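Lab notebook, design round three. We kept the backbone fixed and only want residue identities now. Task for the bench partner: fill in a sequence for the structure below.
Input structure tokens:
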């Protein structure tokens, strides 16, 4: 596998063989096969949005590999201009064209979190429509101008490190995931969250050759272009993909139940409307009754989670819950990514 110097924007930019190699490398590292292969190398991290797991696991991943992770405090008010030809006489400090090249001259990779919907405020933030957000302007601009690999730590569209980390967890827990049943269930959440995480989680289940069931209320459909890629990838592995609006039907005989909430694409920027409709969807929760329908499934959630809103305490604290291992495996997955790209 040679993926050196490639951007890690979406797992589907890589062959399934490359993805499997990364999963195996992460699992080998977890078992102790770690070399200080990044000694003298550094990673710059730009978080435009809050994070706990991604921030800490990347810093520690770099340290375990002998390198340095630098978390640049971008949220202190550093602003970039993205439009070409702009007369920069207003608020932005620096054009991304210059900043991306400068940061590249200091370090060996740049990791970026830029997702308009991730916020620490209690309410959903006002955003542009999906067609605008789907362009992932911040991430794509850095990818265009940087001269070192860009690692996507979650954009509006994909969260490939979560996807790969989940694949590591599924392989670790299930052994041979091929043709096992994977359920991605939408769950209620008071805020309207990005769909980057479920997109990447489902893509990973497809790459593992699983029988994938997606269940969500009517109106919460995933992006048709991304669904098309999921179908292509799952066909290549001999798995399958099905969509249902019945959570109970989806969970019958499941081996993996992964819960995630996301905002409906058609409601982007109109959250007041979505909030009213969602009031009737609070039964979309993972509880014991639902888990009892499964084939003793493991329970997954990317965290952070709203306990007793998305999943009951009984389920997330049960022996079938793998959420802590799932968070840990983010670090091993990222070590595999970092050591392969840099
Ligand atoms: N799952 C995840 O990406 O967590 P953070 O938002 O805490 O990084």
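Proposed sequence:
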């Amino acid at each position: 596998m040679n993926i050196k110097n490639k951007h890690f924007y979406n797992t589907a930019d890589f062959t399934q063989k490359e993805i499997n190699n990364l999963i195996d490398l992460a699992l080998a590292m977890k078992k102790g096969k770690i070399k200080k292969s990044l000694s003298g190398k550094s990673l710059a991290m730009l978080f435009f949005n809050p994070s706990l797991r991604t921030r800490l696991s990347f810093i520690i991943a770099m340290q375990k590999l002998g390198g340095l992770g630098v978390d640049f405090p971008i949220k202190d008010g550093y602003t970039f201009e993205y439009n070409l030809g702009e007369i920069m006489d207003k608020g932005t400090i620096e054009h991304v064209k210059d900043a991306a090249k400068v940061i590249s001259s200091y370090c060996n990779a740049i990791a970026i979190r830029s997702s308009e919907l991730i916020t620490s405020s209690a309410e959903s933030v006002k955003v542009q429509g999906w067609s605008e957000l789907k362009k992932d302007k911040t991430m794509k601009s850095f990818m265009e101008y940087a001269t070192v690999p860009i690692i996507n730590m979650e954009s509006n569209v994909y969260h490939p490190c979560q996807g790969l980390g989940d694949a590591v967890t599924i392989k670790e827990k299930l052994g041979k995931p091929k043709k096992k049943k994977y359920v991605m269930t939408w769950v209620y959440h008071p805020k309207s969250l990005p769909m980057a995480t479920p997109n990447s989680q489902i893509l990973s289940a497809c790459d593992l050759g699983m029988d994938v069931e997606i269940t969500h209320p009517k109106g919460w459909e995933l992006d048709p272009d991304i669904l098309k890629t999921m179908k292509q990838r799952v066909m290549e592995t001999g798995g399958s993909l099905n969509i249902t609006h019945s959570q109970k039907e989806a969970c019958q005989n499941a081996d993996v139940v992964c819960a995630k909430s996301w905002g409906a694409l058609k409601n982007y920027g109109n959250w007041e409307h979505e909030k009213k409709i969602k009031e009737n969807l609070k039964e979309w929760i993972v509880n014991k009754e639902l888990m009892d329908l499964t084939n003793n499934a493991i329970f997954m959630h990317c965290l952070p989670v709203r306990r007793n809103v998305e999943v009951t305490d009984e389920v997330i604290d049960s022996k079938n819950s793998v959420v802590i291992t799932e968070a840990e495996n983010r670090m091993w997955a990222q070590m595999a990514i970092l050591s392969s790209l840099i």
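Keep this in mind before ordering anything: Residues 323-341 form the longest helix (19 residues).
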